[in-house]
Each structure stands twice: as C-alpha cells, then as structure tokens.
Amino acid sequence: MLLIDRYHERINQQITKVEQSQRETCMKVGEVMAQCVKNGGCVHVFDTGHIINSELIYRGGGVLFLKAFKYDLAVEDAVRTRDRSGVDQDMTGLAAYALKKSGALPGDVIVIGSVSGKTANVVDLAIEAKKFGMTVVAMTSVAYSSSVPSMHSSGKRLFECADYVLDNCAPVAEGMIDVEGIEAPFAAASGLSAAVIMWSVVAHSIEKLLEMGITPSLLMSENYKNGPEFNAQMKERYAKYGY
Q1: How many structural domains is the chain composed of?
Q2: Can you give the pTM of this predicted structure?
C-alpha cells in the first residue's frame, strides 16, 4: 500500500476513534462554554502551537467568543553567557501573575492545549487558573502524557490538573505510521484530532446557546463579499454582549 493511502486509512481511523471516545466530553464542555457565555463570562484558549489557535480563532465560520490567551516573561540582560546551573530557576507561580494582568475573571473557561502536557508553563497555568476560579479544559494526549514525567515542581501533568480532559488520542511520540527505513514514526495525530474535537465542542456550544435564546457571533471569510463589514458588526456585538 502506498504511504499516502496508509495515511488516509490511519487518519480516518484516528478521527473515528476521537468521535466515538470524546463525544460525551465534547458535549459536556460545549454546555459549560455556553453557560459561561450566557453568564457574561469569556472563553480563553492557550495553545502550545498544535493548530487550535490558528484553526479556531478569528476565521471564517468561527465563533467570536473564543479568544487566544498568551503569556511569557520577557527579560533583557545582555551580559555574557555563564554557568547558572546552581541558580534556582523555578518559575512556578508565574501564571498567577499572568492571570492577574489579563482580562480573565473567576467563572471564565480556559482551554489549555499541550500534546505531552508535561511542560512547566502549561501545568502552571492550569493550576493557577483553577485557583483563580476558572474552569480548566485540557486538550492533550492522555497516552503520551502518561508516559512522560512532568517538568513542573508539582509533578503533575496537564490532564491531572484539569476539570475536563479532551483526549486527542495521539499515540506516544505523536507519529501514527511506521515507515521502513525511517526511525521515527510518520504523521502527527494531535493536530487534526484536536481540530475535530474543538469544532465538535463549539458545535454543541452553539446549539446550547441557541436553545437559551442567544445567537452567537460567527465570522465570515474576510475575502468574501462584504466580509470585512460583516465581521466588524460581529466584533461590535461581541464587545457589547460577549457572544
């Protein structure tokens, strides 16, 4: 079988697995998001770079109530490089200051995406967001994350810190297909799986909002006729009502 055909077969299996195993959680998270928006809350999305932000946020067909959350600590210090291995460089708790500086409020929802779920900043944000009073939704691979140690001082991984876990069902180390003659497996699973999961969550949240008598603002393609004008109206509505 050609590799292209093997990929099509394997990605279809992956999406079917996601549809069957994550349906209930997707619906629950969709309900939580809808209720949050109804109550005047906001939905934040923190992603480590595997498609969620670019796939879901501010694009044609997407809802305006999903907003990207980003934070970092910028330090400028132009001294020469030296050995700092003996210096305590633990950044635990930094996310708490990011949340204080952000537009977040208790009662908001935050979706945190990390395939391995092991990195310190991801775990730190989940822990601090819960302390802050937010509902934490993890988008991760439980199988992959369970196989690696946490880099956070708590020893926890993302899926162990969240209120809801959306499992992208990616295999350990991401690749889905073994190719003869190549050491690493081919074709990452997490990106497309995460996209399917998150669109499913948003689909259910839209239905729930409509049931509540709320019509969420959806964007039109900027390149479509009257797209910019339409989107400007939607942005004004979101700024006023939060949906």
Answers
A1: 1
A2: 0.94
